[in-house]
Design brief:
The chain is built from nine helices and no strands. The chain is mainly alpha-helical and 278 residues long.
């Protein structure tokens, strides 16, 4: 029952992520470049109705069932037959899968304040998925997504202070912020933004706070850098990229952060055992 509920919730929030990133991007465009027939009210995050990104037709309930609508329509708009990107079901399924993995990997029994902690993490996951999609598509990490997640991170830290009945989570979060975003901040300042973007700095602060540990923040940076290297080096070698190519680093940080959040303690224990034999 829990797996079914988390899957359904993940699919629905994945659908919300797709709508959120598209509407935010449309709002950021000049009115002349927005999709025709769609008013500013329809682009509202809270009040807007979902529309086809090609023809602007308002979608009905049967068009909005996560994954199933895309499959039944064969990836085409019901009204204009425009192609619906595979991004939509992929994001929905990925969000649902992350919810399940989070539940399975969560280290504590979900009761009392631990339920609140887990719920806040799921909210963060939803926001991170939105940031990942936005950065992949438009190479930007919007403040309108990051800043509200800061409030979620603050609540997460306070809940964990309540769970442990000590200031350790707060101190760990501060250390995570310093390591997760502080290094990027220094790089940003030294390079005047040419080595790393300001959005990556803010994202590093956010994920570092959720990890509640400077050591785990360091693991997150290592994983993100490793993933970035494994992807970019072959592309550079094959000349599909050059030294001037822009590559969004936000997705690597997000993937590194999620892996560390769920398996960081296990990774640190494994790494320690290599030297101690324990």
């Amino acid at each position: 029952m829990i797996f079914a509920a988390l899957t359904l919730l993940g699919l629905c929030l994945g659908s919300f992520v797709n709508a959120l990133v598209w509407r935010l991007h449309q709002q950021a465009l000049p009115a002349s470049k927005r999709i025709k027939k769609v008013s500013s009210e329809e682009l509202s995050i809270a009040k807007g109705r979902s529309v086809c990104t090609h023809c602007g037709h308002t979608l009905r309930a049967q068009d909005l069932i996560p994954v199933l609508s895309w499959l039944s329509l064969h990836g085409k708009c019901r009204y204009c037959k425009g192609s619906i990107s595979w991004q939509y079901p992929a994001v929905e399924l990925t969000t649902a899968a992350l919810f399940i993995f989070s539940y399975v990997a969560w280290p504590e029994e979900l009761k009392g304040l631990e339920m609140a902690s887990f719920g806040l993490w799921l909210v963060c996951l939803t926001g991170l998925m939105a940031l990942l999609v936005y950065d992949l598509r438009w190479m930007l990490l919007p403040n309108r997504i990051i800043f509200p997640l800061y409030a979620v991170a603050a609540a997460f830290v306070l809940v964990n202070v309540g769970i442990e009945q000590s200031a350790q989570p707060l101190l760990g979060a501060l250390g995570g912020v310093v390591v997760g975003g502080g290094i990027f901040y220094l790089l940003f300042q030294v390079s005047q933004g040419s080595w790393i973007g300001g959005g990556d700095v803010k994202l590093g602060f956010l994920i570092g706070a959720f990890l509640l540990s400077p050591l785990e923040a360091a693991v997150m940076l290592f994983i993100a850098s490793l993933l970035g290297t494994l992807l970019t080096v072959p592309l550079l070698a094959s000349k599909k990229l050059n030294r001037k190519s822009r590559i969004p680093f936000g997705p690597f940080l997000i993937v590194g952060g999620i892996i560390t959040m769920l398996y960081g303690v296990d990774l640190l224990d494994w790494y320690t055992s290599l030297f101690t034999g324990v």
